[in-house]
């Protein structure tokens, strides 16, 4: 340790997504290669001497206690824990959460010393991993509200790779084995005999961590919700969701020096007749076991919806990934004709 393959892999993965801004301290981390990266991990992040760095990923993250603040993080997976190296500005983003971070380094604020805070989730505290629709994101759940984090990878490949690496690392954990299950057939294993309703597909790892994947009913529920937003004009039977993707809506800030644009996270849903933008709650659902009341907002909130037949043209940017799309609608009733979207996932 570390092997040449691992060194090459974490060096390749150590790249900040081009469309997201990060602090100077995280830019420093992104500039590290190979041995320097491993030494940085052991010198500044690792909590015990004999742990090994196994995987590195850059991703937007959401915390259960600050569900409205999406922040960029360098996610480091070792044989002992998952580390989230965060932008220092996140601590100041929500004043009510200062107790959550227990910040004691206020004397560094005005110096040239750039600080990052690191959130640690020990693998022994890990209880379940919920994978989002079409592997666009995943939620890691520990034993309390402080230990729930959603990684918005917006990329099925990154999600799949992280889950595979996490399963491999969990296999190394020495936990008391669960009692041997009684042999069950498929329907009694995954279904409820009372309702005949399929539950979410659960895979219980040998370390007793649950990996929970969405089933077909989640798409059915989403189709029903979309049909409701369409004022019942469409027959639910003929409604098909063609695309579900986590994207950003681009809001251009006029009058600024560099004509900057802000990115608003949105869920884009394409059906055979409409294009929808939803504000989705990626962190609160499904409800954690300790939750005493339902979340304050619904999982999906409609932000905008347009009919495909009103679509006049689609402008495609020529820049490399992520691709920018501008949808121009010929919609007389609505004066807001331009809709700018930056898709972080533009597949075939």
Automatic annotation (TrEMBL):
A cellular-component GO term for this protein: endosome membrane
InterPro entries, A to Z: PH_domain-containing_M2 (IPR053015), PH_NISCH_C (IPR057714), PH_PLEKHM2 (IPR057288)
Gene Ontology BP, a term: Golgi organization
GO MF terms, alphabetically ordered: kinesin binding
Keywords assigned: Cytoplasm
Taxonomy, superkingdom: Eukaryota
Residue ranges occupied by any PLEKHM2 PH domain in the UniProt entry: 114-178
Domain Nischarin C-terminal PH: 241-347
UniProt keyword Magnesium, yes or no: no
UniProt subcellular location: Cytoplasm
TM stretches of this protein: none
Keyword Cytoplasm carried by entry: yes
UniProt protein name: Nischarin
Taxonomic source organism: Aptenodytes patagonicus
